Automatic annotation (TrEMBL):
The lineage of its organism: Eukaryota, Fungi, Dikarya, Ascomycota, Pezizomycotina. This is HD/PDEase domain. It comes from the Eukaryota. It comes from Penicillium roqueforti (strain FM164). Pfam families: HD. Residues 60-192 form the HD/PDEase domain. NCBIfam families: cyanamide_fam.
Length: 249
């Protein structure tokens, strides 16, 4: 009942500051981040999650799939610690995490001239709403329009690290968790034991080198790509210099 009654809150459309620095400086907690085990944050048990999880697992390389699951668990740990009033559903966040890097796969990088975040958003919309049905037989679980659009908005903007303006709460959490896993930024947001547990369940498999190579490849194919706004050399260097996650590479 609740999502239909309040899709803005349930699907993460609540507007928050784009500047993570300013947002995190507001009412900083007195206590450090709590330890949260993977088993405390189960994957939502819905037919839609099951379908999208199967899609992601079959279309993403294992390092990217594991990264997506780490982003889910790190993000919910950050949300519980810093943003407990953000009320969007775990299902919505899980869908965004699973699909946020769908545009980085080899075929998807090469099939379009769009930046990977933009193409990934379009691909996510297609998959979430089953716009090109490939399932025969029983009805397919489809995301409501508002939920799908919130996920797409978050995916398209998940590397849009702005200091001005607003972003959805879902998009901000996706940004924080991805930049945390990719560069080790905002290290105080997640307890060290949580990092260790999540990284044990979903191994990095040399993720830093894998993602840095993907960034270089996209910039080679598309010198106009949005990722260049993070610094053509600076950003992949930050990824490769991720000392927080180095012990788990």
């Amino acid at each position: 009942m609740w999502p239909a009654d309040d899709p803005i809150s349930a699907y993460g459309f609540t507007a928050v500051l784009s500047s993570a620095t300013t947002l995190l400086a507001t009412d900083p907690p007195v206590t450090p981040a709590p330890s949260i085990a993977v088993t405390e944050v189960p994957i939502p048990a819905t037919s839609l999650v099951q379908r999208i999880n199967e899609y992601a697992k079959s279309h993403l390389p294992e390092p990217t799939y594991n990264h997506s699951l780490r982003v889910y668990h790190f993000g919910l740990a950050i949300k519980r610690y810093r943003f407990p009033k953000w009320t969007f559903t775990d299902e919505t966040y899980f869908l965004a995490c699973l699909l946020h890097d769908i545009g980085t796969t080899g075929p998807n990088l090469e099939v379009t001239k769009l930046s990977f975040e933009t193409f990934g958003g379009l691909k996510a919309l297609e998959v979430l709403q089953n716009l090109q049905p490939s399932f025969a037989g029983s009805p397919v679980a489809v995301a409501p329009k508002d939920q799908a659009e919130s996920v797409v908005e978050a995916i398209i903007r998940h590397q849009d690290l702005c200091e001005k303006g607003k972003i959805t709460a879902l998009g901000q959490l996706l940004q924080l968790a991805t930049i945390f896993d990719n560069t080790g930024s905002y290290a105080n947001l997640v307890h060290p034991s949580t990092i260790r547990d999540v990284s044990t369940h979903f191994p990095r498999l040399k993720w830093s080198g894998c993602f840095a190579s993907t960034v270089h490849e996209e910039n080679r194919l598309k010198p106009w790509a949005h990722t260049t706004t993070l610094g053509e050399d600076e950003f992949p260097s930050k990824v490769l210099g991720n000392t927080l996650m180095a012990p788990y590479e």
